[in-house]
Design brief:
Blueprint: E1 9-19, H1 26-37, E2 48-57, H2 60-75, E3 81-89
Antiparallel strand pairs: 1-2, 1-3
Amino acid sequence: MNSAFTVFMRYVARVEVGLKPGHSDPEGETTRDSLAEMNYAVESVKVGKVYELFVEASSLEEAEKMVDEMCRRLLANPVKDNYKVSIEESR
């Protein structure tokens, strides 16, 4: 009997997207100014996004490749954003 199916594992990927150095962050500046007005001693604020993706893939390497492609195609703007991905098997 020939078994021709692929077993998929579930993974959870955490993607952190933030501005590259040298790009202005108006939202971060506004947040910093508001916190200063509230008497908090905050030197700077960087605003970013965090995505939590639940994906199915045949291996960790395949999941990493798929999530990296998602980042390059949609989740991060390569001109202004850096991104960091961490992936683990979903429980």
